[in-house]
Amino acid sequence: MTLHWQRASKRNLDIDSLFYKLRKMNEKTAVAALAALAQDARLRVFRALVGAAPEGMTPSALSAMLDVPASTLSFHLKELVHAGLLTVERESRNLYYRPALDQMTDLLAFLTDHCCHGQSCGPGKARRRATC
Question: What sign for the dihedral angle of Cα 26, 28, 29, 34?
Fold first, then answer.
C-alpha cells in the first residue's frame, strides 16, 4: 500500500510540475501581452477590469466608466482577449469580461524572474541598490 501511495504521489508531483511548465510564461507570450498593453486605452481597460475582479464588467459598463465608444472598446477587448489577458463569458444576454489574473501573475513573474541576480528583492535591499 505504501508503494502504491508513493507512485501515486510521484505521479501527482509530475503532473503538477508539467502543469507549471505549461502555464509558465514564455517570451513569445510575454511579448504578445506587453504589446496588447502598450496602448493607453487598452491599459486603462485592463486596469479597470483588474479593479473589478473577480466579478468582471460588461462592455456597456466599461464604456460608460472609461468614456470609450462601444466600437472602439470592442476592438480593444478583442485584442486583450487574443493576448490572453482577459476572459469573456456570456451570462444570459450579457458578456462579462474578466482579467486573466493567472496570466497577469505569470507575466509579472516572467518580467522579474532574473531580478537581483536571483536573490530576494526585499524593501530593505531595494533601497540600498540604485536599480533592482
Answer: positive
